[in-house]
Amino acid sequence: MTLAQMTPRLPVLSVALAALMALPPLTPVLAQDAVPAAGLAADEDQGPLRIEITGGQVEPMPIAVVPFFDEGGAGTLAADIQRVVTADLTGTDLFREIPEDAQVARPEGFEAPVAYPDWRAVNAEALVTGAVALDGENVTVKFKLYDVFSGQPLGDGLQFDAPRAGWRRVAHKVADQIYARITGETAYFDSRVAFVSETGPKDARLKRIGIMDYDGANPIWVTDDADLVVSPRFSPDGERLLYTSFSSGMPQIMLMDVATVQSRPLKMEAGTMSFAPAFSPDGRWIVYSREKGGNTDLWQMDVATGAERPMVETQAIETSPSFSPDGRQIVFESDQSGAQQIYVMPADGSGEPQRISFGEGSYGTPAWSPKGDLIAFTNQNGDNFHIGVMRPDGTEEKMLTESFLDEGPTWAPNGRVVMFTRQTPGGDGVSRLHSVDVTGRNMRPLDIEGAASDPDWGPLLP
């Protein structure tokens, strides 16, 4: 566990962040000229075109995302949106792109008929067409998804209207719809990640908190690097952010309004240090580590009233709490057995903590999946670190990674992907963010400029 450390600075970039956060909810409507595919919905059986996501190997589905049509003033924006949609889908390793030079049967327009036999000839199984129109500072994006084998549209054509500044979000929304229709799962592309940016030498790192798109694009800084800050944690609705600041010389939990980038310290008992916060699923409570008199225990606070109450009080160190998605339990790490291990207990503080980690080495930084079915964790065994997952009762443990230093897992909103920090060896080791599928496949570094650590994956945006 790394002590979370934070600051109440208000950067000038708050204006830019506020503009992005002020974008209206991007709710799709039927494309005006789309013909509804009778009875089809994203969560229904839509015929033979379906990736079944289970454990083990998955053969990526060949998909053609043809260049989006410019229906007025879009210019290069149409290509930009198509590029992001393609990158989202192929980045999951569940889809394989049919390259543009192999797309010999492109429709001549968004409403043109599809030559299904020609697409079958290049082994495409799914086809995406789209159109973009720009009217002043407003963008309209339409798309259709086709099942090449059955020769039918897969669901209705949809249209998104948004400010031009939100074009990337629209692209992610389109990819979310395609992913959900084909896999039957909720997607995760239109989401953000809070993280700690690191600059400077290893023994004197400067840290600031950023918020970015899930793929590393559009980073915006919400603290400066004047004070040490760590452990950003989103509220369930993504509108608030907890973090720990060392601006006073001691760790103190801060609460930020993400839209305004205004922070305030949470009032704790005098003489205590607080760190490692986490929101409850309803956003009403936080659970955190509190140190007083050399003892570190878990406490809860009512965010509205500031009322505190103890949860776990032992002679050991309890930290890194995470709620189950139903809010009934918490998982945390403790060294009460002599080494860091993972424990689960009722979130109301009743009952005794139950240890669930019994493998080799030490265990820490547990994170409960949004689906409730798995707990991700950091494992140190000898000289190697791992990111792993296990069932909430400790069974079916599986290591997903192995490296010099992997730590701090956080879940995608759909529980399909885990993001974490990986540090390179050496005296000036650099931390980078990586992601991996819950099956252990598709390890990917995030494309972020500079060093980064301590990610927290926020919810899907409205």
UniProtKB/TrEMBL annotation:
Source species, domain of life: Bacteria
Main localization of the protein described in the UniProt heading: periplasm
Compartments, as annotated in UniProt: Periplasm
InterPro entries: 6-blade_b-propeller_TolB-like (IPR011042), Tol-Pal_TolB (IPR014167), TolB_N (IPR007195), WD40 (IPR011659)
Residues annotated as transmembrane: none
SUPFAM superfamilies named among the record's database cross-references: TolB, N-terminal domain (SSF52964), Tricorn protease N-terminal domain (SSF69304)
UniProt protein name: Tol-Pal system protein TolB
Lineage start: Bacteria, Pseudomonadati, Pseudomonadota, Alphaproteobacteria, Rhodobacterales
